[in-house]
Design brief:
Elements (H helix, E strand, L loop, with lengths): L4 H7 L3 H13 L5 H19 L6 E2 L1 H10 L3 H20 L2 H5 L5 H24 L12 H17 L5 H17 L17 H35 L8 H17 L5 E2 L2 H9 L6 H16 L4 H4 L5 H16 L8 H16 L2 H28 L1
Antiparallel strand pairs: 1-2
Helix pairs in contact: 1-9, 1-12, 1-13, 2-4, 2-15, 3-11, 3-13, 4-10, 5-10, 5-11, 7-8, 7-10, 7-15, 7-16, 7-17, 8-15, 10-11, 10-12, 12-15, 16-17
């Protein structure tokens, strides 16, 4: 690992997903700030040591969005994290995901990455045009937030090689401390064990886990492994779907045990880290270390400070990562691959990734099977 300006710039490039969901879970759902940040911090550090590449750590996006929208409590969120952890640790350890991954063609994976890129753009727009309620105390009026977000996007996108993400995040931290620094306090916030029963587990399974599993399988495992190979060649081979499932699954067992925020890896985060300069495990190690310091050293006051972080900065970083992630489709070479990727991307964005994966596999393998059948019939006659 090597630490330089580019690694530092890449380390903070994926905050556009992490911060809004973390703040909402702390402010709206009542989770402990230390419990929210600690699983992400430890998974970032573990990813740096295991993969030695800028493998990202993100909240479970569908899971988090549903939990926030429905106002679920810490017990349901903890139960969902434990179930997600068990599912993906088992699937990763027995090698199931590495086997299943072989039936997914590259064009289908590009469709998943298109979905993620479009979702990043949608979330980025929502941050400035319709700020989350958890940021309402310090939110800027949309008439100013949208232009500022576009300016942050332009700076992040055009100056990504010059460490501009580090400058933007640094400016955001200064603004947050200036607005809400009085809430800053030393020490961790409280941790508590979840209270689980059959009803809580059933709610977590049906409301949180089932909508999230296809997204985590497709984006956290398949698409992240593919992005690692695209960006890092042979080095990316150690970022396999099964290993990714095991690492973020283990982190979710911890998150569930302390009533914290469930986490995952993500292909969009890989693009963000890479495109803004990260090339080694130094970036996730720095990010994990920073989150660990915040969780343990300042957790008791973060609920009052994090909502003051300027949303245009997060939106600009997130939108630039979305555009750069969509650019992965550039290696598709024929009309069939483009059609499949666009169909999967559209269905994944408008409906969900489960239907997108089903449609993509059908469009790819049914014609192949029919062709093989025709060939056998012709050979027999």
């Amino acid at each position: 690992m090597k630490l330089n300006r580019r690694e530092l710039a890449g380390a903070v490039a994926d905050l556009g997903v992490l911060v809004p969901i973390a703040v909402a879970l702390i402010v709206s759902n009542g989770l402990s700030a230390t419990a929210v940040l600690l699983p992400a911090a430890l998974l970032y550090i573990a990813a740096a040591l295991i993969y030695r590449l800028p493998v990202p750590v993100q909240p479970l996006k569908a899971f988090g969005a549903i939990a926030i929208a429905k106002g679920l409590g810490s017990d349901e969120i903890a139960a969902g994290a434990l179930l997600m952890g068990a599912i993906f640790v088992i699937a990763g350890r027995i090698g199931l995901l590495d086997v299943v991954a072989r039936v997914f063609p590259r064009a289908l994976i590009r469709g998943v990455q298109l979905t993620v890129g479009l979702l990043f753009l949608k979330i980025a727009w929502g941050l400035v045009a319709d700020p989350p309620k958890s940021f309402s105390t310090y939110a800027i009026d949309a008439r100013w937030a949208v232009p500022l977000g576009l300016l942050a996007f332009a700076l992040a996108f055009t100056l990504k090689r010059f460490g501009v993400s580090l400058a933007l995040v640094g400016a955001g931290v200064v603004v947050a401390l200036a607005l809400a620094g009085g809430h800053l306090a030393l020490g961790p916030s409280h941790l508590e064990l979840p209270s689980l029963d059959g009803g809580v587990l059933l709610t977590a399974l049906t409301v949180l886990v089932l909508p999230q599993v296809p997204l985590s399988f497709a984006n956290s495992c398949l698409a992240t492994a593919d992005a690692a190979r695209v960006y890092f060649g042979d080095q990316g081979e150690r970022v396999r779907p099964g290993r990714l499932a095991t690492s973020f699954g283990t982190a979710n067992l911890l998150a569930g045990a302390i009533s914290g925020m469930p986490v995952c890896h993500g292909a969009g985060g890989m693009t963000a880290h890479y495109k803004f300069g990260a090339r080694t495990g130094a970036a996730p190690f720095v990010m994990g270390g920073a989150l660990l310091v915040l969780a343990i050293g300042f957790g008791s006051g973060l609920a009052g400070v994090l909502p003051a972080f300027p949303l245009p900065v997060l939106a600009g970083l997130l939108a630039s990562a979305g555009v750069l992630h969509i650019a992965l489709l550039g290696d598709l070479r024929n009309a069939r691959d483009w059609l499949l990727a666009l169909v999967v991307g559209a269905i994944g964005f408008e409906i969900n990734l489960l239907w997108a994966l089903a449609a993509g596999l059908a469009l790819w393998w049914i014609p192949y099977g029919v062709g093989r059948l025709h060939a056998r019939v012709a050979a027999a006659t």
